[in-house]
Amino acid sequence: MVAIHGDHVSTKMRKVATSLLLLVLMEWWGTHGGAQATGGGKGGKWELLLNNSGVVAMHMTLTHRNTVLMFDQTSAGPSQYRLRPSGKRCTDDVYDPTCWAHSVEYDIATNTIRPLVIDTDTWCSSGAFLGNGTLAQTGGFGNGTRKVRYFNPCSDRRCDWIESEKLLASNRWYATNQILPEKDRVFIVGGLNAFDYEFLPKSSEKEGAFELPFLRQTYDRMVDKGNNLYPFVHLSSDGNLFIFANRDSILFDHHHHQIIKTFPRIPGDGARNYPSTGSSVMLPLEHEDVFRKVEIMVCGGSVSGAPRAAKRGQFLDALRSCGRLVITDENPEWAMEEMPGPRVMNDMLILPTGHILIINGATQGRV
Ligand SMILES: *[C@@H]1O[C@H](CO)[C@@H](O)[C@H](O)[C@H]1NC(C)=O
Ligand SMILES: *[C@@H]1O[C@H](CO)[C@@H](O)[C@H](O)[C@H]1NC(C)=O
Ligand SMILES: *[C@@H]1O[C@H](CO)[C@@H](O)[C@H](O)[C@H]1NC(C)=O
């Protein structure tokens, strides 16, 4: 799964967040003679690359052209990147989203940013890379909620977002996308009030969305937005999909539309998915067993009432625990451990050089 989702920051927070700093942790430890960074760590140093990315990195992902694509919602007001669309009179009096860039491409080699044009609202949309390196980003808010957009990374810096005429079958706001082994087919699951999944592209004109009751069962009605949005999805080595929502997970056969296995509930109180937002990763596969064994790790999140408490100005601790589950085992059990500190979602990206790119401000407005 390509982790390119995020959350909105409130309008008030946005003013702070738009004056972003772009930071990179230079020289991954071990590559630089064991130099010690001040303040601990295993070497490396922080470097300010640019004072301003122009656009909030609500979504951020690395392309195969070694550029970083960032984009934000279009409905929250101006960014710090003005556009001058032809035939439009852009003034400061009325907010017109087309007068501002809501997406930028950062080029690692030249340390430069260029603005892109995005038409429909990508607020809490979701995406996946296709086999040819094109990003397919779907859904979002308002007029973006059933949209399909493509970005083909290019070397001449002239490519831009392409919005497709084909629409999704369901509204997808806070959904998750997973590329499938079938050529360039994407599995898109969940979203607010979307207890179903669909494929992109469809196998026939009349194919729609398929019900997934697991999403109703994991929706926490006591919590605004249910704690099962942006489900974690990973493609297992047997071709089935691991789907985790709230605290529960299943192994799902998308060819036959059936659940193959229900895994044990992850131990501990609290929820792991949006708006309690933890994160999940598939650990590296091992060639010794022909890439068969698949281990998933789920970390962080928050106690289930935390989003509501945050609205009252009461900030409960995020979860510290991480669970690992070998989903290819006959009877898997969660192996739990504690992180050094509690965590909710963060926008963080590992570059091909081993550097870690962090966009400041992305942690604001979180529960
Ligand atoms: C950021 O802004 C400060 C203050 O204007 C300036 O001194 C610094 O050189 C800038 N840094 C970069 C990387 O542009
Ligand atoms: C989407 O809505 C925004 C206003 O929220 C508007 O500026 C934009 O033109 C719309 N795009 C399309 C393709 O309808
Ligand atoms: C990659 O495949 C997609 C879907 O078939 C297509 O829309 C896109 O143009 C292709 N990208 C390139 C660079 O050929």
In this entry the ligands are: 2-acetamido-2-deoxy-beta-D-glucopyranose
Order of helices and strands: HEEEEEEEEEEEEEEHEEEEEEHEEEE
Which residues form runs of ≥5 with pLDDT under 50?
1-40, 360-367
Determine the strand fraction and express it as a percent band: 25-35%
Radius of gyration: 20 Å
Shape: globular
Largest sheet: 4 strands, antiparallel
Proportion in helices:
under 10%
The DSSP helix count reads 3
- Average pLDDT, rounded to a whole number, is 84
Characterize the quaternary organization of these chains. Answer: single chain
Total count of strands = 24
Specify the structural class.
Answer: mainly beta
Query: What strand line-up does the widest sheet have?
Result: 2-1-24-23
Straight-line distance between termini: 23 Å
Structure characterization notes:
By secondary structure, the chain is mostly beta strands. It is built from 3 helices and 24 strands. The strands form 6 sheets. The protein has a 4-stranded antiparallel sheet, with no helix packed on it. Strands 3-4-5-6 form a 4-stranded antiparallel sheet, with no helix packed on it. A hairpin with a 4-residue loop joins strand 3 and strand 4 (67-71). The protein is globular, with a radius of gyration of 20 Å. The two termini are 23 Å apart. The structure holds 2-acetamido-2-deoxy-beta-D-glucopyranose (3 copies). One 2-acetamido-2-deoxy-beta-D-glucopyranose binds at residues 48, 50-51.
Task: Show the helix and strand layout.
Elements: H1 11-17, E1 22-26, E2 45-50, E3 59-62, E4 67-71, E5 103-107, E6 112-116, E7 126-129, E8 135-138, E9 148-151, E10 162-163, E11 176-179, E12 186-189, E13 196-200, E14 210-211, H2 213-217, E15 232-235, E16 241-245, E17 248-253, E18 258-262, E19 279-282, E20 295-299, H3 306-311, E21 321-326, E22 335-338, E23 348-350, E24 356-359
Antiparallel strand pairs: 1-2, 1-24, 3-4, 4-5, 5-6, 7-8, 8-9, 9-10, 11-12, 12-13, 13-14, 15-16, 16-17, 17-18, 19-20, 20-21, 21-22, 23-24
Bound molecules: 2-acetamido-2-deoxy-beta-D-glucopyranose (3 copies).
One 2-acetamido-2-deoxy-beta-D-glucopyranose binds at residues 48, 50-51.
